[in-house]
UniProtKB/TrEMBL annotation:
GO terms for molecular function: acyl-CoA dehydrogenase activity; flavin adenine dinucleotide binding. The keyword Oxidoreductase applies. Pathway: Amino-acid degradation; L-valine degradation. Residues 229-377 form the Acyl-CoA dehydrogenase/oxidase C-terminal domain. Coiled coil: none annotated. GO terms for biological process: branched-chain amino acid catabolic process. This is Acyl-CoA dehydrogenase. The keyword Phosphoprotein does not apply. Residues 121-212 form the Acyl-CoA oxidase/dehydrogenase middle domain. Pfam families: Acyl-CoA_dh_1, Acyl-CoA_dh_M, Acyl-CoA_dh_N.
Amino acid sequence: MFELDEDERVITETAAAFAAKRLAPHALEWDETKHFPTDVLREAGELGMGAIYCGEDVGGSGLRRIDAVRIFEELSAADPALASFISIHNMCAWMIDTYGSQDQRKTWIPRLAGMEALASYCLTEPGAGSDASAVRTKAVRDGDEWVLDGVKQFISGAGVSDVYLVIARTGVDGPKGLSAFLIEKDTPGLSFGANEAKMGWNTQPTAQVIMEGARVPADAMLGGLDGEGAGFGIAMNGLNGGRINIAASSLGGARTAHEKAAGYVRDRQAFGGALIDEPTIRFTLADMATSLETSRMMLWRAASALDAGSPDKVELCAMAKLYVTDACFDVADSALQLHGGYGYLKEYGLEKIVRDLRVHRILEGTNEIMRVVIGRAEAARARAAG
């Protein structure tokens, strides 16, 4: 598990080289100008990063979840915000590949794989965030069509993406009444709010997705004839991978922050010597390095469980998301602190990493919700043992 074989090294090194050449030199500028580099995303797609763990029969890369977390660590070492969008795009691609009809897979996966088309995930609403079962967006059957009405909040890629995977209510209240739909960007009745002014993640647009009598054909429902009422399960299963991918995006950003801090204290002279010679500085670096290593191991463990379909995969993915996003945000914050006042300046890149990583503790299920997921699993285990 700890040593990469030749294929794994090639995958990881390819992602690292792309990130270093095409993302890192532009990350600060993209953040400053709020530029969404769709041309660079297409280049990532050409390298197989648009449908990482989708089937090769429809153009996916056919890789594993553990390959994906390594890819996202490398991408986010250059730009956590853009890496995170690619993560969300991959989550949507996987849902289509896994739950879509053959026509849906053949229509969308080849385009998503090359990132010629981009995908956005639409679950959260103004009044339904962590409580996904409280979704109020409605889809009503009208002959051979579904008519959707509702608003989705905090949607990455809104207004730019080509397809929106929307969770909507087709039946009773609660999780059993939800279904998933694929809505194309040019659908009449579909519109988008203004780009949100955010603390971080400035290189990707975030806005409301608004449906006002948006009509889609009946076969736009994900899952075909068996798709009605399956939306909650589709959404939750997609989030398992989304959680470890976003955690990997925290790890890569924190790794860069640690590297910047180590280089800074090595070269910075104070109190008659290099800062790195101060024991308290070394202790901080030691804690940071330990957090990075434990984060990586937790991610690889959870990804391996997801690949294997292990019974505890949901709990392990939640644990990894909880621990890694918390720990890696602390690493980034410590790196900024070690830079002193310079860490607060944009040109050093630390404050961007801190801003970008902060939201990872909120999205794909808040870390408070991760504790709920883990706690339920622990309670069930305790009862079974009794």
